[in-house]
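Summary of Year 1 activities. Much of the first year was spent building the evaluation harness for sequence design. The harness presents a backbone, in tokenized form, and records the residue chosen at every position. We chose the following record to illustrate the format because it has been used consistently in internal testing since the harness was completed.
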């Protein structure tokens, strides 16, 4: 089989230009989300602002990746963590670690080995894991739980924006981090979870690659530098060898001046998928559990194991994590867990030496991935320029000392934030591949550590029983080990039957333990029918081309399938050729022209000695020119003939491709996605209703206390505007509402709680209104009277000298003043007739409005223009008089000479004196 592969291309993305990904130009912000085993970190990039870490509702820069399901309510992050020790079976955590894995995967089996309260189980229908909540009363897939966590990431981003006075709108564009060793099944499961959450994933990016990008995004290395990134997280260890260098690009497309930009190239990767900070925690947990068991069995006389008690083990795990952190900075710590179980407490003393002894065997595992990464990069320790430590687990002193012993004189660098660099690098990567942002130019090349191969066979091969015909099959490695990602490869072969294509990992032994080699399966149809059609035309077998893509997210898929047949045929075409006789005639004509030209030259040479008239000379010249013109216009005659010409035509057909999956773990089907989206939306609706219900209950409860306090604190003032019966009725309503809230209100819905609030608020607000109006209303009336008097006095002064203000306008204004005063007097009389406990005749808010008609008319009068006055000085009048007399004299003289006026112009001049002024 012929395998054609394109040249290896590095993924080089420049600021604002995505070569392999199309993104929304309208994106206002992009999230970089690092889903760790314990904590989630969210970074935000938006236009006109630097990269930043999003703080959650508790103002923390990282959020616990866990959800508490309790009585139809979901609690996230710190809210769930605070109740974890009390409700461990209702609080799943670290769900992203379970994506795309089965119950036999080491990362899943370790949960039962470490006595976690929630153990995932395999679901045959779902073809994946399910996580039972509260003993199986509820059950969710890892994709659903991860989608909920991602949705919470969007919520805290919106809350973070509101605190800063920003509104981001819908934030759906994101880049998510994955471990370097994540297989396609695990990556696809994360993409499915993001889809359930309503996110648009621009790309997945390896955790170490994101950290390297965060480290090198503001650096330009003149000479290539090799860095080793050592990342020990909560659940795994990853090591990457990265090359930093630079290259030149034009400053702009219109400039020839060059500038250097940084470039990052991943050379090799190594890992230990189950060695992380939680492994150190577990050693401490086991030590404390053994100690408690000895004391417990001695005191109670039984052989029970504390490891069988989920709540007690959760307390130990929480305490073990604190012990590890303290011993990373101190030599010893007293450990005390009050009432761990059975009315017994745990009290021990631990030292750093004890912890290092407990974890001594882990150090060999902690350095092995360093050698694996160097081998993959085809380098040695001498080639490494520097080492950068990231991840929380690297803070353990034993890890640092063991690593330093292997690396020799290499300094262990900590120049980037070990917790946040992955999220920040992911956000920066998203800004680069999105066309909505313009950021610093950086080049990036990442690699795929697992080779991928295809297997081809006839689609109907199982139906062929003939033994004398060899079964057709082909195999090829499409993407090699540590090959660059974001590339496309095409496989071409000649065939005339429909084929089945299997896409698998080529070397299953190189995969992380527990990973499955099956990727995707394709039924490619249409080849046989196309081949038969070509055979009927007398053509050969089709050439089938299958194009595969290894995307930036590390997902391999068949993106194009077509068959083609090239047909060669001959056609007769008419071409022009020169006639031989015409060609000879043309040659003779050309010789005569040469002779004639020579004769002309001879005539010109002897013209000085030959006497010739001007007319004869001109006649001879004209004849010569005419002869030359005749010669120039004579062209050789052409003739045509038929010749055979070879032509090529390509017949193409786009093939039908049916995709499906096999194996124990499979991506979510379309039906499951719709079902999970509905379930998540229903949970979100219930959460919203719960929040609205809590707000309504809080509003009612606070109002009850407000009424109680007001009746007590302002009893004297309230008694002036209410009767004893009104106050007693209001007090009874308050007591009844309080009793209802803490009894029947527990099961009431939002509408019922709001109705109860209105039942109490309606009479209470009438009392508060009369109370406030008892002072506000007289103040408003007095303010209006003062304003009327002041305005009227000012207007009377302003009218002086304003002759253009008519009497009617003044009268109109006076009537409006009178109307305002009458309204006040009438309302005061009406209010005086009412009792203090009755609703007032008018409110203080109505009083200022009586000035509006007056001020509207005053504004119009003040804008009224003054009339224009004609002014002429004495000199100008004299000039006009002289000019008029002169015009009269001229007119008289003209009248004497002319019997009648000659035209209309003179008449016009006669009737318009002083024309210049007009």
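For this record, the design step produced the sequence shown next.
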């Amino acid at each position: 089989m012929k395998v054609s592969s394109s040249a290896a291309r590095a993924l080089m993305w420049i600021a604002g230009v995505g070569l392999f990904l199309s993104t929304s130009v309208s994106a206002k912000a992009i999230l970089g989300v690092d889903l760790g085993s314990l904590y989630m970190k969210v970074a935000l990039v938006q236009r006109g602002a630097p990269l930043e870490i999003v703080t959650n509702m508790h103002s923390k820069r990282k959020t616990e990746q866990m959800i508490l399901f309790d009585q139809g309510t979901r609690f996230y992050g710190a809210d769930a963590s605070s109740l974890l020790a009390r409700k461990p079976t209702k609080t799943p955590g670290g769900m992203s670690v379970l994506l795309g894995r089965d119950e036999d995967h080491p990362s899943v089996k370790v949960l039962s080995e470490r006595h976690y309260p929630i153990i995932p189980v395999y679901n045959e229908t779902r073809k994946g894991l399910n996580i039972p909540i509260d003993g199986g009363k509820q059950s969710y897939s890892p994709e659903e739980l991860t989608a909920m966590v991602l949705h919470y990431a969007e919520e805290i981003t919106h809350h973070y924006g509101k605190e800063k006075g920003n509104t981001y709108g819908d934030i759906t564009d994101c880049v998510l981090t994955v471990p370097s060793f994540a297989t396609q099944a695990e990556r696809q499961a994360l993409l499915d979870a993001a889809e359930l959450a309503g996110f648009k994933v621009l790309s997945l990016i390896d955790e170490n690659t994101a950290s390297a990008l965060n480290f090198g995004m503001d650096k330009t290395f003149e000479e290539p530098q090799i860095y080793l990134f050592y990342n020990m997280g909560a659940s795994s260890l990853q090591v990457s060898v990265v090359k930093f260098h630079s290259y030149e690009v034009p400053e702009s497309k219109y400039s020839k001046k060059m500038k250097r930009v940084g470039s990052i190239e991943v050379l090799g990767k190594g890992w230990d998928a189950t060695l992380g900070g939680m492994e150190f925690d577990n050693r401490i947990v086991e030590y404390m559990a053994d100690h408690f068991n000895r004391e417990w069995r001695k005191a109670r006389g039984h052989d029970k194991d504390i490891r069988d008690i989920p709540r007690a083990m959760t307390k130990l795990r929480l305490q073990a994590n604190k012990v590890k952190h303290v011993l990373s900075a101190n030599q010893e710590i007293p450990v005390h867990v009050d009432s761990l179980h059975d009315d017994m407490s745990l009290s021990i003393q631990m030292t750093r030496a004890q912890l290092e002894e407990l974890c001594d065997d882990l150090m060999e595992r902690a350095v092995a991935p360093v050698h694996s990464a160097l081998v993959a990069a085809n380098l040695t320790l001498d080639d490494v320029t520097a080492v950068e430590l990231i991840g929380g687990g690297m803070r353990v002193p034993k890890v640092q000392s063991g690593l330093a012993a292997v690396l020799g004189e290499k300094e262990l660098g900590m120049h980037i934030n070990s917790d946040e660099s992955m999220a920040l690098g992911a956000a920066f990567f998203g800004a680069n591949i999105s066309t909505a942002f313009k950021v610093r130019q950086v080049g990036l090349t990442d690699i795929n550590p697992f080779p991928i191969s295809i297997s081809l066979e006839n689609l109907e091969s199982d139906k062929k029983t003939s033994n004398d015909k060899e079964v057709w099959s082909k195999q090829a490695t499409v993407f090699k080990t540590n090959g660059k990602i974001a590339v496309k490869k095409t496989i071409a072969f000649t065939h005339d039957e429909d084929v089945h294509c299997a896409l698998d990992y080529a070397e299953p032994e190189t995969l992380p333990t527990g990973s499955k080699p099956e990727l995707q399966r394709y039924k490619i149809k249409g080849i046989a029918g196309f081949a038969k059609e070509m055979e009927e035309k007398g053509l050969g077998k089709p050439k089938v081309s299958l194009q595969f893509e290894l995307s930036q997210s590390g997902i391999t898929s068949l993106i194009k399938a077509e068959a083609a047949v090239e047909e060669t045929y001959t056609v007769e075409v008419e071409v022009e050729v020169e006639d031989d006789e015409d060609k000879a005639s043309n040659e003779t004509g050309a010789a005569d022209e040469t002779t004639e030209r020579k004769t002309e030259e001879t005539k010109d040479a002897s013209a000085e000695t030959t006497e010739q008239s001007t007319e004869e000379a001109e006649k001879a010249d004209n004849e010569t020119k005419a002869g030359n013109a005749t010669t120039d216009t004579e062209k050789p005659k052409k003739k045509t003939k038929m010749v055979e010409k070879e032509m090529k035509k390509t017949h193409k057909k786009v093939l039908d491709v049916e995709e499906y999956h096999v194996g124990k773990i499979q991506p979510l089907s379309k039906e499951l996605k719709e079902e999970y989206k509905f379930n998540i939306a229903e949970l979100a609706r219930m959460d919203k209703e719960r929040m609205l219900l809590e707000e309504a209950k809080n509003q009612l409860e606070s109002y009850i206390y407000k009424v109680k306090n007001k009746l007590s604190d302002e009893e004297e003032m309230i008694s002036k505007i209410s009767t004893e019966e009104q106050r007693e009725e209001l007090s009874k309503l308050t007591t009844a509402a309080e009793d209802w809230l803490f009894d029947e209100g527990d099961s009431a819905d939002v509408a019922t709680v709001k109705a109860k609030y209105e039942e109490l608020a309606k009479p209470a607000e009438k009392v508060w209104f009369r109370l406030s109006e008892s002072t506000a209303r007289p103040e408003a009336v007095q303010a209006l009277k003062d304003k009327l008097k002041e305005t009227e006095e000012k207007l009377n002064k302003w009218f002086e000298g304003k002759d253009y203000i008519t009497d009617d306008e003044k009268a109109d204004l006076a009537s409006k003043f009178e109307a305002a005063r009458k309204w006040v007097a009438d309302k005061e009389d009406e209010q005086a007739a009412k009792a203090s406990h009755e609703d007032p005749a008018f409110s203080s808010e109505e009083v200022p409005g009586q000035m509006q008609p007056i001020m509207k008319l005053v504004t119009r009068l003040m804008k009224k223009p003054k009339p224009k006055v004609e002014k002429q000085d004495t000199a100008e009048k004299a000039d006009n008089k002289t000019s008029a007399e002169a015009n009269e004299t001229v007119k008289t003289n003209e009248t004497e000479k002319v019997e009648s006026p000659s035209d209309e112009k003179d008449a016009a001049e006669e009737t318009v004196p002083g024309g210049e002024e007009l």
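The radius of gyration is 47 Å. Quantitative recovery figures across the full test set are reported in Table 2.
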